[in-house]
Amino acid sequence: MADVFDKCRSWETHRIFKSAGLYPFAPPVETMLSPGEARIHGRPVIIAASNDYLGLSADPRVREAARKAIAEHGTSCSGSRLANGTYTLHLELEERLAAFLHREAAIALSTGFQTNLAVSALLGQDDVVLTDQDNHASLRDAVRLGGAVERVFRHNDTKHLEWLLADTPAGSGVLIVTEGVFSMAGDMCDLPRIAELAGQHGARLMLDCAHDLGVLGADGRGVPELLGLESGVDLVMTTFSKSLASLGGALAGEADVIDYIRHWASPAVFSASMTPASVAAALKALELVEAEPERRRRVMDNAARLRDGLRGLGYEVGSAPTPVVPVHVGDFMTCLRLWRALFDAGVFTGAVIHPAVQHGRELIRISATAAHTDAQLDRIIGAFAEAGTAVGVIGPQGAGR
Question: How much is the pLDDT for 154?
C-alpha cells in the first residue's frame, strides 16, 4: 500500500527556493513600525503588498473598539453561530452591513474563505455555476463542495460567458460568479454586460467584492455602486480582512437566501463564530468607511502615483483605477529574482506565481493604501528602479528592455 505522505517528502520546490533566498511567502513580520512599514527578518521594509487599503488596521479607534470588546466579552465566542456562538455584536454587524449594502439581510462568517464556501449550500447537482477563470480559489472550491457543474469562462470574456449560457441545459439553476476587483491583476469585471446576460438568461449573479468594498463607489459599496448596477447583483460577498481591518466575511442578499445559508452552510453551522474583537473592529471600520470618504480619495491617488511612476520606469503595469497595481513580469524565475531584489532594496511586495496565476502570467503585486506617505511611495518607486535595473527587467535609464 502506498504512503499518502510520500508526495510531501518528495516535494522539494520550496526547499530549493528557500536555500537560494528566493522564497517569497509567509514572511515573519516582527512588528509594525508604522502603518506602511514593518520589521521583517530584523530590518525595516516598506509594506507594498498590504490589503489594508484604507489603512484602518492601525487606526487607534479601531484598535480601541477591539480592546473594549475583549474586556466585555472575552477573547472567543467558543462555539458556532447556531449553537452558542452568536453575540449581540454579530447581529449588529449583520444589520449594519445589510443596511450599508442596501440588502435585506447579511450573514457574517469567521473568514473570507469560509464565506465563499458557504455559497455551496445554494448549489446541487442540477445546478450550473459559470465562473471566471481568475476567481478566488475559495469560489471554485464552493462549486465542488456543492456538487454543482462548474463551467469556467475565460477571464472577463463575456462572449465566452454568453456562449456558455446558451449552451446550458434548460431547467438548470444557473449562478454566475465573478469578482468586482480581481485580487491579483486589480482589473474590474465587465459588470454591465455580465448583469445584462444574467437577466437575459434568468441566471443569478454573485459578486465577490473583497477587494472593492470600502474603496470604490461614492459611499464605498464597491463596483456595483460605482457602475450603478447594485440592483443587478443578487448576492454580494465581502471580506473584513481588507478595507474593514479585521478578520471574517459576509454574504448579503435576499432575506430568504441568507436565512437558508445560515442554517444549511457547513462553514456557518459547524465553525466557531467570529471573535468579539474581530466583530468590534469590523463594526468600527465600517463606521469610518461611511464617515471618512477622504480615505478612498487618498488610496486612489496613491495608486495612480504608483502606476504612473512605474510606467515611467518602463514597467508594464495594470491600468484599472483600483488600489491593486500589478507589475507584469511573465517569467517564473525573473519574478522571484525581482521580488528578492526589491526586498533587498527595502520594499516588501507580493510575488504572484502559478497556481495563483497561469504559467507565463507571473507578476509582482503591489497595492496602495491610504496610509502610505508620499515619501514611502517615492521609496517604492525608487526600489523598483534599482531592482529592475539589477535584474534586467528595465534598462538603466528607466526604459523597457
Answer: 96
pLDDT score of 25: 81
Q: Are 333 and 323 in contact (CB under 8 A)?
A: no
Is the entire prediction scored with pTM above 0.85?
A: yes
Q: Are 274 and 110 in contact (CB under 8 A)?
A: yes
**Across residues 351-360, what is the average pLDDT?**
80
Among 120, 183, 241, 278, which one carries the catalytic annotation?
A: 183
pLDDT (tens digit, 9 = 90+) per residue, 109-118? 999 999 999 9
18 an active-site residue? no
Q: Measure Cα distances from 393 to 23, 46, 330, 334, 380 in Å.
A: 19, 21, 11, 8, 16
> Is 183 an active-site residue?
yes
242 assigned to active site: yes
Active-site residue among 110, 136, 138, 211? 211
Grid cell locating 47: 509594506
DSSP string computed for 73-133: H-S---SBTTTT---HHHHHHHHHHHHHTT-SEEEEESSHHHHHHGGGGG--TTEEEEEET
Residue 398 confidence (pLDDT): 52
Over residues 364-380, the mean pLDDT reads 96
Annotated catalytic residue within 50, 90, 136, 242 = 242
Residues in contact with 386: Cβ distance below 8 Å, sequence separation at least 6, in sequence order: 341, 345
Helix 88-100 to helix 276-291 angle, to the nearest 10 degrees?
30
Give the residue among 135, 289, 317, 308 at the shortest CA–CA distance from 217: 289
